[in-house]
Prior knowledge:
Blueprint: H1 3-29, H2 32-40, H3 44-54, H4 56-116, H5 118-135, H6 137-153, H7 169-177, H8 180-183, H9 185-195, H10 202-205, E1 207-208, E2 214-216, H11 221-229, E3 235-239, E4 246-251, H12 252-261, H13 267-272, E5 279-281, H14 286-296, E6 300-304, E7 310-315, H15 316-324, E8 337-339, E9 344-348, H16 353-360, H17 372-380, E10 388-392, E11 395-403, E12 406-414
Parallel strand pairs: 2-3, 5-6
Antiparallel strand pairs: 1-7, 3-4, 6-7, 8-9, 9-12, 10-11, 11-12
Helix pairs in contact: 1-4, 1-5, 2-3, 3-5, 4-5, 4-6, 7-9
Amino acid sequence: MDLSFTVIALVILILCSAFFSGSETAMMSLNKYKLRHLAKQKNKAAERSLKLTRRPDRLLGMILVGNTFANIIASAILTSYAESHFGNMGIFLSTIILTLFILLFAEIIPKTLAAIFPQKIAFPASPVLWFLLFISYPIVALLNLIANGLLRCVGIKIKHKVNAEPLSSEEIHTVVHESKSKLGSQNKNMLIGVLELDMIKVEDVMIPHHRVEYINLSLEIDEIIHQIIHAKHSILLACYDNIENIAGVISTKRALKFIAQDNKPTYEDILTLLRDPYYIPENISIKAQLINFQQKGMRFATVVDEYGSIEGIITVEDIIEEIVGEFSDTYNLHTHIRSSADNTYAATGDTTIREINRHLHLQLPTHGAKTISGFIIDELRDIPIGNCCLRINNYIIEVKKVQNNMIKLVKITKEKNISL
């Protein structure tokens, strides 16, 4: 056996070993969801790769047979040459040299490249793998039968899955978070909003009772009409004196149309425009409530606590905002956050944490306090008696006004804009 034949044979066998090693890693590293998407678009390489990965036991069996065969033949050829030319010392040296070459050029390098570029390697390799699997099927099937039988002996039963294992909602959440560059910030936020609908309660997004606009039926008819004409929203509660005494719900659009037709509507006329309020618990998820709105054909609900006390109201638009973000709607037409020319923001103390997070991306925790005032008090563990500030996620939150043990106004500034 001459040197040239030995070198050529070793190069070919190491390349074969590198092909099997690289294709194994590439096939196992393919994104199964992307692969199925490409296969549905009639990508031939994707279709072949998908069929190969549906039975990983057969694919790996064939690859391991080919890889082992190439390595053993390479070892036998080099050992034979080394023994005939250098004796026992040649056998020892050839083993070390071949091991290093196989590790570097047939294992580490091809597997590293395949892990980094799985699709670029798997797709071109798929026709070859498909052909090799076809011609070696009897051997591979026999080996798989023996291997699966041995696994059953220790209580492991192999199930061949046609489809990829479905992702959990938490895993989808992670995928969406890591796909910002491809999805775009707006699409990403919308998808996250949909995924979080189950985790958000009505009390997290409702309009609290002290911010609810209502029609006071205890006033004179002229004043009631004045309230309706100047109402900011299309649907309002109608109450006696305060929000705890609800008489019903009134559509200001319908009321305005009625007033336009009758210049002198009476108090009884206004009462005929009322419809029964729709009460919901505060701890229901907004996903369930959105479904309830759809089933009942309604878009406005009054939120009550476990004792039946009025906590606030919620509309379909409030829920939709959690998905698509802030927009001009029938109730939250004006945000409680105001921006300044120096890139700072002023917010009232009753601004909700979710509104702060949505506008300023502070990512404040939403499982505790519902408003920025409550959050500051929780952080300080005390009610501030004057101006103070705290740093949260590269923002400085300053308490600017405290009145009657309540934080009325805060100023929020990006830390990079603060000159120390």
